[in-house]
Structure formats: C-alpha cells, structure tokens
Amino acid sequence: MIDALRLSLNGDRVRFINFLEGDRQEEMMRDVRTGLAKPQKSIPAKYFYDSCGSRLFERITMTPEYYITRTELSILEHSAGRMVEFLSGDGGDIVELGSGPTSKIKKLLDAAYARGLDRLRYIPLDICGICIEEVIEELPLLYPDLEVLGLRADFTAHLGMLPGGKKLLVFFGSTIGNLTEQECAGFLKKIKQTMNLDDRLLIGMDMVKPAQVMEAAYNDSEGITRRFNLNLLSHINRELKADFDLDDFEHLAYFNPDDEQIEMHLRAKRAVSVSIPRLSMAVNLRKGETIHTEICRKFSKHRIERIFSEAGFQIEGWFTDSKGWFSLVEVKTQPADHRACAGKFPRLI
Q: Do residues 271 and 289 share a domain?
C-alpha cells in the first residue's frame, strides 16, 4: 500500500511517497533468517540504516580517518558545473539513490542554478523515512523554485518506479562498493532500464590505495564505526524481538587484498546463543565466529572501465582528486544496448 503525503508547508512543490509501508518487516525477517542460517552468517548491510544507524554514519563521515566524504565533496566543489551540463535547456530531475545529508546534493543544485536552469526537480530515494523527511523540509526553503519528490524506497527493489523524464541519477559515497560483483551487474542493469538515451548516471567509486589508509577509515579512533556496526544488532533486537547482547560481539574490519575489498564483521567474544522469537529461530555462534555485515569494494581504473563496458554503459566524464583516491564517474547508456533494455518497468507518474 503506497502512503502518499502532500506536505502543506510547501504546497504542491513537495511530495513524499512511501513504498516500504507494510512489507518492510517481512523482508527483514526473510533476509535475517536466510543470512543467519548460512555457514558464514551474515546480515544485509541495508539494515544498518535505521534512524540511529543513519545518524551514526553521518558522524563517521566527519571522522579524521574517513576520507571518502571530504574527498568526494572536494571533487564536487571543483567539477559540479560540468556534471550538470547536459541538463541545460528545460532542466530535468536529479535523482539521488541512497540519499543522506544534503551537503553533496547542494553542490549539484548550486551548480545547476548557477547555469540558469529554470526547471529542476530533486528526487531523494532512501530506506530511512526520517532522513527523507528532513531533506524535503530543508531544501525547498533554500531553493524556492525547486520541486522535491521524496521516495522512501529500497533502491535495489524500486528503481522501476522512477519518473521517465530527463534525469541525472547520482549514487554518491561509493555505495556501489557494498554490492558484490554479481549484485553490481544486476543493479546497473536495473538502472539502465530506467534511463533514456539522454540521461546520465553519476556514480562514486572508491579507488584502491594503501591498505592502512583504507583500514583506518573503518576503524576510526573514536569507535563510531564500531557503534555503527553493533547498532545492526540493536535494530534486529528491536524489530524481530531478538536478544543479541552487544557486549558479546566486537567490531572487525580489514582489507582483503585478493578481492580488493574491506570486509566488516561482528565477531563473537565467547560462545553465544541468541533467540529470535519473531523467526522461531535460535542462533548459536562459537567463540571467534563472525556475522558478516558489509563489504566495501575498492576499484582500479581498469576495473571500473570493465564494469561499465560489460553493463552497456559508456563513460562520458571522469572526475577525481589530486591523489586519485576517489572518482565520480559519469556514464550514459550505449544506444544499441538501450534499445534492448528500455521500457521494461512501469513508471511513477
């Protein structure tokens, strides 16, 4: 059931649509049951982002060790104008997948308005409803001509509901690195099915760099990433009535050079038995056994070029910092590939 709420504070310029009402807990139950029954126990990383987890992640981005956000912001500061060039004329939609704080999107909006665009709509899409509400209350006050359509949705499941007009899709923060190679290929295929030939996808990719730099970003000295990781268990406790004791687990994050990815786990400090009544399930962990919570893949230029080529995209722009630590890559669909994939999804009106 879609819950559509028109916010009277901003008249017809602001709408909020919730695609997650009703079925969210059932999906969590399926995911947690499946993940905790595997030989390598796991819980999907998307369940980090309850309201507490979203705020903890915002704090992570401000730690000295976490270079990704400040590096990406510096790239946007210098290159946002070129990233929105193709929206000249009648403007269009800027769709942010996995939207969070507004610091990055404001760089694009400022650049777009500086170019004199007279019709823009911003569409933030995120699983955190409170985060969406904060964004759609803030931005119309800063940009009086901006339309905002907030979507509480899962970008792995609801891309087909995006509007069909001219758009720039943005996927900041190297979130693409949280997907396995197979998941990434499937995700890019779904994105391509929503895109017109004139659309662009701007996507953040964290580059391979010295292991000590990458590992420090996920083991900050303030312990905020540790709290973020453990909060996943708090979320499961609250939603599924589980009895995980957070003191029984420790945060573990390290770089796996063979797969070129950071891996995050929760490791049992002792033998643990956990009851999850909503799943009619008991989970036993040996001392030292882990629950895998996230991967953060890192990329080389060659690997990025291969990923987009295999997915049927061509690279239109490549924006990076002076150290080459992070890249924002702008791509469009290849014409022949587009004809094969376009029009497969219904669209949101």
A: yes
